[in-house]
Every structure is written in structure tokens, then in C-alpha cells.
Amino acid sequence: MNIGKKVKSLRIMQNMTQEELAVRSDLTRGFISQIERNLTSPTIENLELILRALGTDLVEFFSSMNEKEKVVYTKEERIPIYDTPEGIKEELLMTATDPKKIEPSLIELNPISSTEVENYHEGYEFGYVIEGKIIINLDEHKYHAKKGECFFFTSNKKHFIENNSKKNNAQILWIEIF
User: Fold this and answer.
1) Of 46, 89, 103, 119, which residue is least crowded by CB atoms under 10 Å?
2) What CATH number does residue 31 fall under?
């Protein structure tokens, strides 16, 4: 079990220096450095102070140490979204994205179809047009994108996507970032 490596990883993910972590955990920078290099082992009390400063706790820290990170998500693992408008097929591409705070999906729009209007919410939207041409509607503005192009916008406006083609489907990779 590499406690030092895990502490360092958590610290870096928080964009925190060893000095900042030391101040927040009421320990010395040298002690933090020794822990991260596995030159010393912290007491449970010191580890609790460090983890609290990093925004986690002992249970979460040790439960995630043995978890293997999921890297590949197969087509069979996709989750179909059933409450989409007629002519729209949507699948979540990944499950268990909670710590990542993203929701990637694959959307197919039949000819002359559109997604439902999404109201204002926090976050961002990113999309990549895999096939066809689409119109991105943001409040009262319309933006056109075609195969090979991508889009990105803040979710603080009403938005939906439409395929105005009378004969061709459109397919996009859509990622919501919370």
C-alpha cells in the first residue's frame, strides 16, 4: 500500500503545494515531503489531519486505494436514454462518472428532428459532430456545425440541437460537464 503516493496524488489534484497542505493540516512541509516519499508513515491522527485538508477522510482514502481505475468502456456497457423525442437515439457512453463530473453521450438525430430544449443550468456543454450537419440553438442564436467540427458553450442559456436535413442522419458526441 503506497500511502505517500496517494497523498501526493490527492494534493496535486487539489492544486496544492506541500507548504499549503502543511499549513492546512498543521504539520510541517518537511513531514509532508517525507510522507509523500514514503520515508515515514503518518500516525492515524496525522493522516486524518492531512486527509481533512485534502477534502476527504480515512474511509474514502482506504476504500479507493484498492480500486482499479476503469479506463475502457465497451459498447455493451452503454445505457440507453429512453425519454428522448421521436427521431432521437441517445446513449450514455460511461457509467460511474460521479467523481469526474461529466456525462458523455452519443446522440443520433434522424432527419428533421431535434433534442428537447434544456433550460438554464450550471456547467458546460461540449460536442463533436461525427456525422452530418446540425444546428446548435442557444437562446435566440443559431450556430451551424458539420462533420469534424466541435462546439462548446456555457449551460446558462436555453439550448437544443436540431438536424434539418430531410434525408441524412446526424450523430454527435455530447459531453455535459458539471
Assistant:
1) 119
2) 1.10.260.40
Q: Are residues 80 and 44 in the same domain?
A: no
**Same-domain check for residues 36 and 91:** no
Amino acid (one-letter) located at 25: S
Amino acid present at 82 = Y
Sheet containing 102-109: which strands, arranged edge to edge? 79-81, 88-92, 102-109, 170-177, 124-131, 150-154
Please give the DSSP secondary-structure letter assigned to residue 100: T
**Cβ(40)–Cβ(8) under 8 Å?**
no
Distances (CA, A) of 52 to 29, 39, 56, 73: 16, 22, 5, 32
7 CB-contact burial (10 Å; exposed 0-12 / middle 13-18 / buried 19+): buried
What is this structure's pTM?
0.61
pLDDT at 66: 62
* Averaged pLDDT of the chain: 89
pLDDT top residue among 69 and 144: 144
Same-domain status, 79 and 43: no
What pLDDT, in 10s, does the model give residues 155-174?
Answer: 999 999 999 999 999 999 99
Task: Report how many domains make up the chain.
Answer: 2
